[in-house]
Design goal:
Order of helices and strands of chain B: HHHEEEEEEHHH
Low-confidence stretches of chain B: none
Largest interface: A-B, 64 and 54 residues
Strand order of the largest sheet of chain B: 1-2
Helix content of chain B: 55-70%
Number of strands of chain B: 6
Low-confidence stretches of chain A: none
Distance between the termini of chain B: 29 Å
Strand content of chain B: 5-15%
Oligomer: heterodimer
Largest sheet of chain A: 4 strands, antiparallel
Mean pLDDT of chain A: 91
Structural class of chain A: alpha+beta
């Protein structure tokens, strides 16, 4: 038997265990709506029993209980769900950003509608035919020049807006990378704190919650993988390369390389060729920044290329036909003051041409050669609109690569962006549904339920009261023993 | 599965958000009357709509072009009708000139009228439409015929030598020549033949060549009239073709409008039903959420 005062200790242990259990419930309730918080529960355990020492085994039952202790404070968390959620979050991040950029491009294109390039192309070619129908009037010719200027302006505006989009994508990528680096530092700090707490035998639940929340956020930016070591620290890999290893971090960098492309690299790590180690994001926002900026169609750059191709061929084909023409004053191609309709593209190829080179070259009505130079006689030029009609007919001629007309080519491009954007919307919906499901499963494991906490609180409160009552019992026993024992017959 | 209050709250918010999105889309579709606002709303529909708009613009242009072509041809046609009148009158003069009983004074009078008619024929060939010489080829600022009769016995008639075609696009890949040229009214190889003949009539009348009037002159005039008739029927045929084409184009553009509406326009009944369903679901979600979310065990503890 433990000493008489040992029973106080049993009661005291009960009090302190239930007090701690209630504290944990209070903590749960307080954090019921904290993002990333996982509910905690005390694990109670009977404390090490007491075996009365004796040389000869005494009669009676052995091993007397010594009360209860809090063995650990456990955090409810499912690492498998975490991993799943992080993978899907990266996919969602990728599609959401993609959708945003595609919507921005769609808004910019203003199709289908009167404000778009499709309508402007129609107007432009009709302006040629109108001018050709009354070749001796300045009005329709001036109208043609204005429409052509409207067309080139539209190309320039689209070019500028696409430049802006590309610039913004690069800036956002840099900001995101800065955020990733900040999070990496925070993760390594948390690693240190958690390892220290674990080293002292504690669970570091709340620090782990914070770290998991950081990892959740980080996973939206890129494809990451996480490994926990025996100290409780995590190594975080971004596209297979260590971003955080235990207490150290590697700095990631986003930059525009010499080709004008966005790239991500670790400036302090070297690859086999002794160059800074590059990573190519396969998922998450970083993936989208890269692919929407300078990836294959549909990307801002691919759209710029497509528009450039369109503008190049417009200028080239129209100039070619225009050169067969003659002005009313008799000037034909080759004469000193001859002007091409669009700025000369002969010095360019589709690849070297830029949308800024797409310019209207003629300045006044008389510069436009609508007559067929083959007529040969300046008198005949006044009423000839042959060249104008031929240029108007280019609108329906399959002159673009692939045997399509200008408008078909443009429409196919728009169609591809529409499909991609619609795809992104659909993927976001799917991903959100999936994430909702996983998040629900995770919540089922980790979320605080107030009803449950209240039930447990009542339970522990009762136990606390009972433990207190037990101490009163012992106390009364002691009172009896000390104050009333040995006073027989007094 | 363990369900907590926060999960229920989140589910409620997610559902409300989704329903609001549907309601908003229905609202936009109904209020604008269009269901495609950007290509991603329906990529195929959007490119179809763009193609249809493009086509509609083209048709609108063909219509203008055809109306313009029609005006040209009508101008030529009415000029030819006038010319026919002139030639018929000349024919009457010739026939009356074959009468050998006519005294020289009467022949002079006939000659004077014939000379007048020659002038009329010249001015018909120099007809203008909107300030442009109808029969002048592409040089339509130059009168096709110059007629200098300062020496009445030996007038100078010259042709501008302009016979180039003026064309209009009247449908995809289809062009029509809309002009006739002054030389077409004369025998091949002699662009001013008609007028030369008329002058010869004047000379014959004045000099009383009853014989040649009755044979050569009458013969030539007959040929000119039939040449004129065939030109005029060509103009008529072209006008006809344009009118038919125009009617077809108007039909087509009506068709296009219908097609465009099919592709673009909101399906009102369906969208309204969608909106009602979404609204009913939204209100139900709100009502249920309002009863579910506030209750916890705490409400029932003393």
């Amino acid at each position: 038997m433990i000493g008489s005062f040992g029973s106080y200790e049993v009661g005291r242990r009960g009090l302190s265990a239930y007090k701690r259990a209630l504290d944990v419930i209070g903590h749960n309730i307080a954090n019921a709506n904290t993002k990333g918080y996982s509910r905690q529960r005390v694990h109670l355990q009977a404390s090490t029993p007491y075996t009365a020492p004796s040389a000869v085994r005494p009669e009676g039952a052995g091993q007397i209980g010594t009360g209860v202790v809090v063995q650990q404070i456990q955090r409810f968390r499912d690492a498998f769900l975490d991993r799943q959620l992080r993978y899907e979050a990266a996919e969602l991040g990728k599609w959401q950003t993609r959708d945003t950029v595609l919507k921005e491009i769609e808004t910019m294109l203003a199709e289908p509608g009167e404000a778009g390039l499709n309508a402007q192309l129609s107007r432009f070619f009709q302006a040629w035919a109108s001018a050709a129908n009354t070749p001796d009037e300045d009005g329709p010719r001036n109208q043609l020049i204005q429409t052509a200027l409207g067309l080139t302006d539209m190309f320039h505006r689209l070019n500028r807006q696409l430049d802006d989009i590309r610039h913004n994508l690069a800036v956002t990528a840099e900001n995101t990378v800065a955020e990733i680096n900040r999070m990496a530092t925070e993760l390594s700090d948390l690693n240190r704190q958690i390892a220290r707490a674990q080293g002292m035998g504690d669970q570091a639940n709340d620090l782990r919650d914070r770290r998991d929340l950081l990892l959740d956020t980080l996973s939206g930016y890129a494809s990451i993988s996480v490994q926990e070591d025996s100290l409780g620290a995590v190594n975080v890999y971004i596209e297979g390369q260590a971003l955080v290893s235990q207490f150290a971090t590697n700095r990631l960098e986003a930059r525009i390389n010499d080709d004008g492309d966005l790239e991500f690299r670790f400036p302090d790590l070297l690859d086999a060729a002794n160059n800074p180690l590059q990573i190519v994001p396969t998922s998450g926002e970083l993936h989208t920044y890269k692919t929407m900026r300078d990836g294959d169609e549909p990307s801002a750059q691919s759209l710029q290329r497509r528009l450039t191709e369109l503008a190049y061929h417009l200028a080239k084909e129209i100039n070619d036909v225009h050169r067969q023409g003659a002005r009313i004053d008799g000037t034909t191609a080759g004469d000193p003051d001859w002007l091409d309709f669009f700025a000369d593209v002969d010095g360019f190829t589709v690849d070297t041409f830029s949308l800024l080179d797409f310019k209207v070259n003629v300045t006044k009505a008389a510069d436009i050669a609508l007559a067929d130079a083959a007529l040969g006689d300046p008198d005949k030029y006044r009423g000839s609109g042959e060249i104008g009609l031929r240029i108007a007919e280019l609108a329906g001629t399959p002159v673009m690569t692939g045997g399509v007309t200008f408008a078909d080519f443009y429409r196919a491009t728009i169609n591809r962006f529409g499909v991609a954007s619609q795809d992104a919307e659909r993927m976001i919906e799917n991903q959100q549904a999936l994430l909702h499901l996983i998040e629900n499963q995770r919540q089922a494991v980790s979320a605080v339920d107030l009803d449950e906490e209240m039930v447990n609180a009542m339970l522990f409160q009762q136990s606390y009261e009972a433990a207190a009552r037990f101490i009163t019992v012992i106390d009364e026993m002691m009172d009896r023993l000390i104050n009333f024992t040995g006073v027989v017959g007094r | 599965m363990r369900i907590t209050h926060s999960q229920m709250a989140r589910t409620l918010v997610d559902n409300l958000y989704r329903l609001q999105q549907r309601r908003n889309q229905a609202q936009i579709d109904l209020a604008t009357g269009e269901r495609i606002h950007q290509p991603s709303d329906d990529p195929t529909g959007a490119s179809k709509s763009m193609a249809l708009r493009h086509q509609a613009d083209e048709l609108e242009f063909y219509k203008n072009s055809m109306n313009d072509a029609g005006d040209w041809l009508k101008a030529a046609d009415s000029a030819m009708t006038q010319l026919t009148g002139v030639l018929h009158r000349v024919r009457e003069l010739i026939i009356s000139g074959t009468n050998t009983d006519k005294p020289p004074e009467a022949m002079y009078a006939l000659a004077a009228e014939a000379e007048e008619l020659l002038g009329q024929a010249v001015s018909v060939l120099n007809t203008q439409h909107n300030g442009r010489y109808v029969f002048g080829g592409t040089a339509y600022h130059i009168p096709p015929i110059t007629y200098d009769n300062s020496d009445p016995n030996n007038p100078v008639i010259t042709w501008s030598n302009q016979a180039d075609a003026i064309t209009r696009i009247i449908s995809k890949g289809e062009r029509i020549q809309i002009n006739f040229t002054a030389d077409q009214f004369s025998p091949p190889g002699n662009p001013t033949g008609l007028l030369d003949q008329l002058h010869q009539v004047v000379v014959d009348l004045r000099t009383g060549q009853h014989e040649s009037l009755g044979t050569d002159r009458l013969e030539e005039l007959q040929q000119s009239l039939s040449r004129l008739l065939s030109l005029q029927s060509e103009a008529g045929a072209k006008l006809n073709r344009i009118e038919q084409n125009l009617a077809r184009t108007i039909d087509l553009s009506l068709n296009l409008e219908t097609l465009l509406a099919d592709v673009q326009a909101t399906d009102m009944p369906r969208t309204l039903i969608d909106l009602s369903i979404a609204t009913a679901a939204y209100e139900t979600a709100l009502a249920i959420g309002g009863r579910l979310i506030p209750r916890t065990l705490l409400d029932f503890l003393r």
